[in-house]
Amino acid sequence: MLVDNASAFGADLDLFSVFNPALGFPTMSMLSNWWNGGGNNSNGNDLCEVCNARPKYRDSFRVHPYCGKSCAAKAPNCFYPGCGAKGTREYGGYCSQKHQKATVYCASCKSTPANPGHALCSNCQMMQDKNRNRLVELPPNDTGFQEAQQMLISGWPRGVRPPQVGRVFKIMLGENSQLLRSQYKNSGDSSRLPIWYSGQNICELGGPTKPVEFCQYKSCGICIPLKSGFSAFEFGQKYQTGPHGNGIYTTREPAVADKHAISSTGTPYRVVILASLTIPSNASREFILGNNNDVFCKNPLAITPDYLIAYNY
User: Fold this and answer.
1) In the chain, ranges of CATH 3.90.228.10 domains
2) Does residue 221 surpass a pLDDT of 80?
3) Where on the tree of life does the source sit, at the highest rank (predicted)?
4) What whole-number distance in Å separates Cα of residue 249 and Cα of residue 50?
5) Please, which residues bridge with residue 197 across strands?
6) This model's pTM is above 0.70
7) How far apart are CA 118 and CA 125, in angstroms?
8) pLDDT digits (tens, 9 = 90+) for 284-295
């Protein structure tokens, strides 16, 4: 049984700041010296694996990794994600040889174990999630739903029966996308213009039984522009081609965008993207507002996607 240790731990104790949950999972480089008996002690193998100041506790059966209960409570858990056992120097911070050999490292930072079944560690996954664009469905009584519905119907040609809106999704931009667009908008005087865009909806996004998430199809004309913030299109293309050159082609009329909306027979809905275009006062050939209400733009940061609207006739 471990005895309590109430003594001071010395300078090595501040190494435990790396285990503060607010700072994320420690990297292997941060801990390598500690796990290998770091500190100012030359005979680290015989000393407590936490404080490096007192001898390891010995009982009748074995030598424990720690000098007492206080250090044992402070020792970090096994590096293997989800394991609650204590790590040891014998296995380089893991609780066992099994977990040491089973560990796959994060494909991004390459220094921290990846979450089981995933390519990334918790910290890198969190950062990726923060920077990923996503969709949030709005209920019919939400002001955003009503705004998008009103703009779609009011923009329809007179004398033509307007569409019926079935679902509306707010497009939530990742932190990086928000920051870059905010910097672009604040770079000088500008005006904003509502624009519309649509394409081939390969995955039937917006369908009544479809999940509210982007697909991975390389040919989807809806998910790829939304995921990338209009910096990529089908099959990895970085721009569209047309009469004004390479860039992004949208329109000021939802009925014109509707002509490009293609859905499969698996969903009753067509979908269209409602976005905002930021036009600087000193805009040159980067922006062209055509006589037939087409809108040409070269810079994807000028476009902020706002809503995805699913509708039928």
Assistant:
1) 131-312
2) yes
3) Eukaryota
4) 61
5) 273
6) no
7) 9
8) 667 888 878 899
Hey, what CATH topology would domain 131-312 get? Phosphoenolpyruvate Carboxykinase; domain 3 (3.90.228)
| pLDDT (average), residues 64-87 | 79
Give the DSSP per-residue string, the chain.
-PPP--S--GGGGGGGGGG-GGG-SPPHHHHHHHHTT-TT-S-GGGB-TTTSSSBPPB-SS-B-SSSSHHHHHHSPBPSSTT--SBP-GGGTTSSSHHHHHH--B-TTTSSSBPPTTSSS-HHHHHHHHHT--EEEEEPTTSHHHHHHHHHHHHTSPTTSPPPEEEEEEEEE--HHHHHHHHHHHTTS-EEEEEEEE--EETT-TT-TTS-SS----TT-TTHHHHHHTSS--GGG-SSEEETTEEEEEEES-HHHHHTT-EE-TT-S-EEEEEEEEEEETT--TTEEE-TTSEEEES-GGGEEEEEEEEEE-
Euclidean distance between CA atoms 53 and 158, whole angstroms = 84
pLDDT band at 18 (very low <50, low <70, confident <90, very high): very low
Q: Report d(CA 238, CA 215) in Å as an integer.
A: 18
Name 307's bridge partners.
170, 274
The two tokens of residue 253 are: 């009329």
Exposure b/e, 283-292, CB count within 10 A at least 16 = b: beeebbeeee
